[in-house]
């Protein structure tokens, strides 16, 4: 990026030579301290970059340092788009190629109904190219977080801070001093990273246990509800089955709504012989007239009995029925016919009586 921002490599070399000439008279220790003070102010100091992608498959760079985790545009590694400081992070974990962090957001206070965690924790997810790369990102994040904790502890426990001239003298005495100091720093970075891991494991264990218990309760409740709904469905299917059978007995055809099990043949419904009939409205209207109430009632009863006798005759003449059924139907027809003859005699007598009464009335 330096070469890209300047005219040429030769121009950069000339600038370096000019800066080198300004250091005449500096001791080795002073030069190292000035160099480090400049380097520490660079925005990319101590940042380890990893190429990742988001949920939309857009490329990004994750920068891990002692300050936290930063997200960079794929074409710009100097100015981060977002920075998550270590003190904001609640947890970080990976699974296969997915690397996730949980960030504490004090501005977000709502509680989600679909999650079991607090509402002020936001989860950010990125995807690495391989599982090994994802694990490397997680390991580097753990090491950088431990380095952040070690620096914080060492600053609080230090009784005093050495002055820069003293450090410059010590660095000037031996060229091994800087490498030794770097080795001890590296050991402090990678020697132990159990704090975040232990805290994460404890939180994960408690969260996993509560989540598992909640899921078990939810599954039990859903299972009970499913069983109740299935029982209700069985009751409704049985009611529908009975209604369809009754309709089939009346119409002679089984309705298509009849519930059938897979592979179950539909039940056989025997078609009934048509026995429906209609009554004359004139006979019904005659009942209203009190003078002809008795004759009209007998005429209505006679007509109804005639229809019944005709239907009984058709049933008795049906040859597809069993012998016992045909015998019973024949007896029913004989009884209906006898009842029809009795009604005919009563009707004739009632009409004769009515005619005699009408002829004996005085004329006006």
TrEMBL record:
Superkingdom in the source lineage: Eukaryota
Keywords, sorted A to Z: Coiled coil, Cytoplasm
Compositionally biased spans, kind Low complexity: 180-201
Region annotated Disordered, chain positions: 180-223
GO CC, one annotated term: cytoplasm
Keyword Cytoplasm included in the entry's annotation: yes
Compartment(s) where it occurs, according to its Swiss-Prot or TrEMBL record: Cytoplasm
TM ranges: none
BP terms from Gene Ontology: establishment of epithelial cell polarity
Record carries keyword Lyase: no
Residue ranges constituting the FERM domain according to the UniProt record: 1-152
Pfam families xrefs: CUPID, FERM_C, FERM_M
Family annotation (SMART domains): FERM_C
InterPro entries the record matches: CUPID, FERM_2, FERM_central, FERM_CS, FERM_domain, FERM_PH-like_C, FRMD4A/B, FRMD4A/B_FERM_C
Descriptive protein name: FERM domain-containing protein
Source species: Cherax quadricarinatus (Australian red claw crayfish)
